Amino acid sequence: MRAEGIASFVRVWADHRRGVTGWGAALAGITFMYLAFWPMMGADMQAMVEGMPEALMRALGYDRIGTAAGYLEAVVYGLLGPVLLLVYGIGLGGRVIAGQEEDGTLELDLAAPVGRSRLYWERLAAVWALITTLVAITTLAVLASGPLFDLGVSVVNVLATSLAMWLLVGGFSTIALAVGAATGRRGAGVAAAAGLATLAFVFRSVADAAGVDVLAALSPFAWMLGGEPLVHGLDALGAAKLALLSVVAAPLGAWRFARRDLMV
Amino acid sequence: MSDTVIVARGLVKDYGRTRALDGLDLEVRAGEVYGFIGPNGAGKSTTIRVLLDLLRPTAGEARVFGLTPAAGGPALRARIGYLPGELALGGRISAGEHLHHLAALRGGRGRDAIDALAERFRLDLARPVRTLSKGNKQKVGVIQAFMHEPELLILDEPTSGLDPLLQYEVLALVREASARGATVFMSSHVLREVETVADRVAVIREGKTVDVDSVAGLRRRAGQRVSLRFAEAPDAAAAAAIEGVEQVRVDDHTLTCLLRGEPNELLQWAARGRVLAWSARDRDLEDLFLDVYRNHGGLAAAEGDHDAR
Lengths: 264, 309
Hints:
The complex is a heterodimer of chains A (264) and B (309). Chain A is mainly α.
């Protein structure tokens, strides 16, 4: 079967199918490896961090590292998962429109009988599909590790936390794509998204360490983890705020992309 | 109206402070092969990108099949086959997958022609596009431009980077497309590439159309190099006074000049003396274009006031 109606979506997928396989394997492997340390290190970990200043402990998200949920959050959802997925997603978002426009490989697609909006939304959807795949793989690795390494966290709460991470990563990747498509500069898209993501990460760390609520309120990382979804389940308000990143950025990028000069 | 396929009137395109097109005019009739000639940087690719709605004009207007490219949108581009000047192909997919993708963007149109065209151009469809040589990439570009038998072909330097055999094959495709009624708009920075297939040629320079003529007309106006050897030293001033004769040089008993237009008067004048030897050969059209590129006023200024049209 040939998916003519969604040729742009299919094309992005075809270009990145190998890449996503490699990233998926790496994410699953790293998740697995770190969670495998839990049975050995759980108690020691608690002892180790007890010597740390409290502010540093909180900034690193280690204040609850002695619990399974705390360890999972500090290692996978608070650091490795989002960081690796953001590196992938922001790079991809910057590449599929602006990057390919800059290196000329998008020219034939743009000259084809496909509207610019259509091309934009299909390529954005493909980015989301690739990110979804990686988040799903990471989540499966976490769920598989649960019984193996005696983590004892609820499946529902893992899914809720993964959902929040998916919205966060998708949001910043959407910003990279949207800013890139709006400007025609891959660098601008990647810099905007990576800059905002870094700021969000720092805001949450500082907010946790010093208890500055304003910074937490502004940080998508705090929207993702502030409600402790691994303990309390889905934080609907946090998830809604995370979704807002994409809901705001995507149409703005599409609007500008449809109106500007291409291949300049 | 219906027999003009491309019309541009006073087309202006600025990139920031740089003016790429400066009031360009064009009129391409249905069914003709139209050469679009100018030096690099003259605005050829910019014009083409306006026609494909990649760029929006700063001022003036372009219409393709009667529609502005922005208003025509995807439906208009469905009637066009486009070969970019600098074709970039990337990604891990094979040449065949790439062509099938481009056909899918056209709702499947042209897919059935891929295999035959690939065979004709000896393109290995299984090779990943990234690993293709420049010539092979150009083949992919040519195939995707022609495969859906579009009504209008817009080819930006279609033969550049191809070996002579492939150049010949591309020009053969152009002739075939023309024979089935398609309109072809092809750019080049050298006239030689288009003169064998083009009906008419527009010359552009610094974003303006400086001249439009048929290839035959251009050739006529380019003139001939005439050399006459006389038994006695000829009168250079008398020869220079003859209509259509320029650049008279006398070297001993031999007179050489550039002749534009009919040779009758020159021959009558020459016959008054005793002519020992003579030769006349067509001037390379490239020379004429070098004149145009150097001069501001276009062909008319380049050749004085001898325009026969």
